[in-house]
Amino acid sequence: MRFLDGQQPTTDLTYGDVFMVPSRSDVTSRFDVDLSSDDGTGTTIPVVVANMTAVAGRRMSETVARRGGIAIIPQDIPVDVVADVVADVKSKDPVIETAVVVAPSDTVSTVLTLLGKRAHGAAVVVADGKPVGVVTESDCAAVDRFAQVHQVMSEDLVALDAAQLEADGLEATFEQMHAAKIHLAPVVRDGLLAGVLTRKGVVRSSVYRPALDAAGRLRVGAAVGINGDVAAKTRELLDAGVDVLVVDTAHGHQGKMLQALEAVRSVDPQVPVVAGNVVTAAGVRDLVAAGADILKVGVGPGAMCTTRMQTAVGRPQFSAVLECAAAARELGKHVWADGGVRHPRDVALALAAGASQVMVGSWFAGTYESPGDLHDDGTGRLYKDSFGMASARAVAARTAGAGSAFGRARKALYEEGISTGKMYLDPLRPGVEDLLDEITSGLRSSCTYAGARTLGEFHDRALVGVQSAAGYAEGMPVATSW
Ligand SMILES: NC(=O)C1=CN([C@@H]2O[C@H](COP(=O)(O)OP(=O)(O)OC[C@H]3O[C@@H](n4cnc5c(N)ncnc54)[C@H](OP(=O)(O)O)[C@@H]3O)[C@@H](O)[C@H]2O)C=CC1
Ligand SMILES: Nc1nc2c(ncn2[C@@H]2O[C@H](COP(=O)(O)O)[C@@H](O)[C@H]2O)c(=O)[nH]1
Ligand SMILES: [K+]
């Protein structure tokens, strides 16, 4: 990456401070851009779901890995639950999606609760393992909440056969669904429900490649903190089958982190290890020396994060990523830009600055696939609760039952995150895949503007300028007259 006209910025910058100019390009289609990362984590799009309890759970992990990204299960989740999540994600099909399933005797009230768990807009009604109907939100409108599913479901089913699907391919399957005027179809294998396909999902499967491990199963990562028996927890996580290990604490450039990395490396010298958070080249070098392959960069940019207000510590994220990525590159290592990503442009800028991937937390909390329950704010707008991992809420959960009550009370004094975030679902993009579409289409387009076919070329070719607040504002759409 170069600054425009050889500028050398004299202050640290964040995403809003910078813009990219187009360069001569011979990349004729945005579909010609390869978004795979080269940092050894096996992702085919450079998007990692942040290890936050309100964001990364099993549905999020499965959905994002099917489209080529990876989610990191937070360190606060008990290790036996992590093992269960990893096994579940790895049991899922890379193309056929997991259905929301109900029984004919379930109530409409149950259906309405479950529909919000995935973006399909329909639940498959199953009896003896076979699909017998489909039920949507509109089927449930204006009927009693205790009505039973069999009374309202549509029995007019067009089911797809998994073997036939493989033989026909995605395009023919899409055309078949189009001709049948259906947006969703249950998929059966030997007559039993194997999942669902949506028309949108079929198109996505033709554009994205799933992030798969050596055995062809979806990838998933998990985080470990720096306290306690790090080696033992690492062993348990690796036995559970996690593909990437994230060693995570607020202040990554500290002695306990270096010891934690040594403990992790003593267990497994091979697994990709991500460590952070840091924002300086010195932090990068020390953590690499202790065994990290990838540095998690970002102190204070997160949407749920109050660290900069509490402590004055942190660094504007674009400059942090630029300096850390350059230091990591010299050592043959990589960085993930963690936090503060709110628009596709931020993803492009982080990658231009040299990050191999971008971590997204709060933005994805506001989707069907995040772990929380859907709420209506009283005006019909849907949202989910979110909270920081250093908030009072997370600290109380993390320390519950550990140590003495006195110790927990002392810990509770330190709070560097908000407990009561409200992340609205975008009515046009309520599912995480809708956001991935928005991010990756923006990023593919950024790459062609820079004349880049790969993310490596994008970083090499990106030409970045510094802008005023008015320059940033000019880029915003204006939907009403002024
Ligand atoms: N990216 C960011 O800007 C930030 C991210 N977070 C996230 O919050 C989660 C919890 O992290 P964390 O609070 O580190 O909890 P951890 O459970 O990982 O514990 C942190 C350990 O480091 C010690 N420590 C020393 N200095 C600090 C410091 N300045 N801040 C925090 N701990 C310190 C603590 O001891 P003692 O308690 O005795 O001081 C404790 O033993 C993580 O997921 C982290 O990524 C949190 C803050 C900032
Ligand atoms: N200082 C704090 N940082 C936090 C907290 N919880 C999470 N985080 C960091 O934010 C990113 C995600 O950023 P986002 O803008 O996409 O939400 C996450 O990976 C952590 O590094 C917190 O309580 N305090
Ligand atoms: K912040």
TrEMBL record:
Its EC number is 1.7.1.7. PROSITE patterns: CBS (PS51371). InterPro entries: Aldolase_TIM, CBS_dom, CBS_dom_sf, GMP_reductase, GUAB1, IMP_DH, IMP_DH_GMPRt. It comes from Krasilnikoviella flava. It comes from the Bacteria. NADP(+) binds at residues 248-250, 298-300. Residues 95-152, 153-214 form the CBS domain. GO terms for molecular function: GMP reductase activity; IMP dehydrogenase activity. The active site is at 305 (thioimidate intermediate). Belongs to the IMPDH/GMPR family. GuaB1 subfamily. This is GMP reductase. Involved in the purine-salvage pathway. Catalyzes the NADPH-dependent conversion of GMP to IMP. K(+) binds at residues 300, 302, 305.
